[in-house]
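ugh ok so i messed up the first submission bc i forgot one of the chains. this is the corrected input, ALL of the components this time, i swear. 666 residues overall. if the numbers dont match what u have on ur side tell me asap before i send this to the collaborators (the ones from the other lab, u know who)
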Amino acid sequence: MAIEQDPNSSGSAAPLMTPAVTSFVGASEAVAPVGGPSPIRKFLNSRGSGDVADKVFIGVMLVCALSIFGIVLFILTILILRSRLTLHQFGFSFFLHSAWDPVSGDFGALPFIVGTLETSLLALAMAVPLSMGVAIFLSELCPEKLRAPISFVTELLAAIPSVVYGLWAVFVLVPLMRDHLGDILYKYLGWTHLFEGYNFGVGLLTASIILAIMILPIISSITRDIMLAVPTSQREAVLALGATRWEMIRTGVLRNARIGIVGAIILGLGRALGETMAVTMVIGNHPEIAKSLFAPGYTLASVIANEFSEATGDLYLSALIEIGLALFIVTVIVNAIARALVWAVTRGAPARGH
Amino acid sequence: MSTNPFHVPPPPSEETVKSPPSNRKSAWTRVNEVRRYLVNHMVTFLAVLSTVLVIVPLVAILIYLIYMGASSLNLAFFTKIPAPVGETGGGMANAMVGSGIVLALASSMGIPVGIAAGVYLAEFGRGKLLAGAVRFTADVLNGVPSIVMGIAIYSLVVLQQHHFSAFAGGVALAIMMVPTIARTTEEMLATVPHSIREAALGLGVPKWRAVISVTLKTASPGIITGCMLAFARVAGETAPLLFTAFGNQFWSFKLTEPIAALPLQIYVYAVSPYDEWHRLAWAGSLVLIVMIMVAVTLVRIYASRGVLKGAS
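and heres the new structure output, hopefully the right one now
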């Protein structure tokens, strides 16, 4: 649009709206009167242009961004402050001590740690192979038409509230476990001595199953995204060498994405460690380290959920907050590792794989 | 053979090249090929099988929830407050209003901060170490169990005020919204083409104005749905409300008093021994699920359309 041949224009390459453009880009000596800023500059200033407004704006945005750090620091400090009673009284032995006796004021977090680890790892053992299969199917084998609906369902299931899963577990999974599944497990896997004792339906195994159901959509959708982030050229290269589809997936995709997949699994672990409501509703809430998977147990999150509002006495409250602190630190570490691994793979890839 | 390093071996005779490979294959190669073929199909089968094994029960759960909810939902659910134990009827009207109040409070605090943090990450923080750290912290914070937020806010707000309150619940949920919204806003802003920003800046629009009325506006459908998703997520959160909003069997509109919330009510009713309450719990779950379904569907629509039709 530049009318360079116009002899009347003052600038060298002046477009149609000569004064506005030249004065804005700073060639003010050509157009603006010597005494002050050009009318255009005045106009822009009156509409809020200028360094000050921009700096204030960026400052506000920065403060909001930094508030995310603030939140983490705030949680950490307040939990440490409020749990200092037990931190002083029990020290590190709090985590190695298996008594939980609010009446006599003797607290140890070991049963909850064991319960959390048992349920989370068991849930991972159930969920990981299945979600790998789902991710491979969705990213490599799935017909184009099926991909969108299946991804939609997984996303939907990942978003369903924990308490709703808990409700379902209480009324469907627990009776199923008590009346059918428990007997089958005892019959075929009884030799492992893991399925002994009386089966109430509620217990570690039921909690693990509901956890597995809840982390399945998360692990599989992240793994799918990671596998889709592997460049197509990798797949083509391996296929061109005469590989079968599985060999292509194994050497071309899984090998490239393995770090991210580990990250996705750890992310699922983080979710399982902190899952509260559904677990509280079906685990049985009994602070004892059990040998059988049918036995009722307790997790870090569920003891807080269950006992916090009825905690009497400062020491009891402090013990529960210290459990929360432990949960916070562990999940932050687990999530940090997982995120770092996932980022290592998906960095540079589009945010959402389509 | 030859000592000459540049010796070019004679081209292979016609037979070695042209002969069909099957004749030349050793038995071992063939076994290997069959094995590869079988493994390939077995893995394909396993992948399909696991998808079926996952999708079918999960969809069954979903359908069961919807069925149970739909069969226990009635008008009283939306208009009445919980009936005393032993009486039939009653609803969760107060819990829904309570959830609305707590969520409005949470949104009014969490959404502006979240969007602003996202704007910083996308517009001003590109390639900066600080932005990377914020992004990382947001992702990590996303994974922190909600119950931890609950006890942190309990320690800060409830212990100061000496009673549970709707305000405390709102703060706990707001904290959970910030990282999610920041990250979705950032992602959505990243899809705004640079040419649009440059066009705005080239017209002499100040940076803050360009961000607010051009970049944010262009990405607004995506950002709004991102906020909806965060809203739907925290709407179903129970754990952070247990010791903050606490729950209430009656109407309550004050921010300084314990207030009922839908997920809390579902939890209390689900673990109660009364059939009538169980029915209400199912109905409450359905309301939550429908809300989340709408949010997820909208997000998918915007994500698959690439958000910015008019822009690019």
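quick check: Confidence is low (pLDDT under 50) at residues 1-32, 349-354 of chain A. that seems consistent at least. The beta strands of chain A are 100-101, 106-107.
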